[in-house]
Every structure is written in structure tokens, then in C-alpha cells.
Amino acid sequence: MTLIVRRAGSLDCGAMADLLNQIIEIGGTTAMTTPITRSELSSWMASDTDQSAWHIAEDDTGALLGFQWIAPKTGLPAEACDIATFVQVGRTGLGTGSALFDATRAAARQLGYGWINATIRADNSSGLAYYQSRGFDNYQLTPNVPLGTGQVVDRVSKRYNL
User: Fold this and answer.
1) How many CB atoms lie under 10 A from the CB of residue 8?
2) Would strands 152-161 and 137-146 be described as parallel, antiparallel, or unpaired?
3) CA-to-CA distance for 2 and 103, rounded, in angstroms?
4) 17 and 38 Cβ atoms separated by less than 8 Å
5) If you ran DSSP here, which 8-state letter would residue 11 be given?
């Protein structure tokens, strides 16, 4: 299988929403608790276009394997961006996240960011391990964050210096 990473566009939003909604439905790895639409995802992508970067990973048939984005986030300084990563259920550990991060890291540098923030649920061991393996360091623990379902989780913030 050939892994292709490229910039995401509005035509990718339907497949991206489907992938993300499957992860949301399973639960346990994202703070998102309600499904999103293609239109919502497209709106996110269209906002802050000069300060964000969206990438998808697909196989040689064009099937979506995962996606990742960086964007400014309220509460972070201007020199920092926030990152989100989603890989198709059952397809983790195959290099998709690594390939996405290579493209995202380069984009963050081009956009002039000094560091990348990742905030992960403390009970998401695979997410914590993923960012740790990329070189992110813990810098903050936020306890007792309520999710949309009423579940309360701790959140770990990690930092990657560019």
C-alpha cells in the first residue's frame, strides 16, 4: 500500500466527517461527543485559512486513512497552534500519523508558529503515546473537564517546539 499525504480540500470534508463520526460514535478517544456534518467541517477548514493547515492521508486508491489539522486556538499565545489528529478505526500503527505529522510540522513552520499544542483526554492512552512518540512534552494537566455527555475527564496538554 502506498500512503499519500496531501493538503485537504472542501471535497474531502464528507469522507473526513464520516471518519471522525465513527471515532465519536465509538467514544473514548476524542473530547467531541456529537456527530459533525460535512458542512461544519468545511466551515472549520475555511476559517483562519492563512493560519491553519489541513492534511489528509489516503491510500493509492484514494481511500481516506486519516487527517490532521493545525489552527490557532483561544487561550494559546499567537506563536502556538493547536493540533488534532484522526486515523481510521483499525488502521492505527501503520505510519499514517507519522506521515501526517511530517507534513503538519512543515506547515506549522511555514506559517511561522514556534510550537504546537496537543490537548488529549488523559484516558486516551493511544493518543498520549502518539504525541509522545512525535516528541511532544507534557506541560499541563487540566482535571475534571466535563464532556458533552456529562462524563468528566482529565486533559493533558503537550507541547512540541518547532
Assistant:
1) 21
2) antiparallel
3) 16
4) yes
5) G
**C-alpha cell at position 44:** 472549520
Query: How far apart (Å, rounded) are the C-alpha atoms in residues 30 and 53?
Result: 20
Distance CA 160, CA 93 (A): 20
Give CA–CA dist 45/32, Å, rounded.
Answer: 17
Q: CA–CA separation, 108 vs 160, rounded Å?
A: 11
- Amino acid type, 107: A
Residues in the chain: 162
Cell representation of residue 147? 464532556
Per-residue pLDDT of the chain (162 residues), as tens digits, is 689 999 999 999 999 999 999 988 877 667 777 889 999 999 989 987 799 999 999 999 999 999 999 999 999 999 999 999 999 886 666 689 999 999 999 999 999 999 999 999 898 888 899 999 999 999 999 999 888 878 888 999 999 999
Cα separation, 3 vs 64, whole angstroms: 10
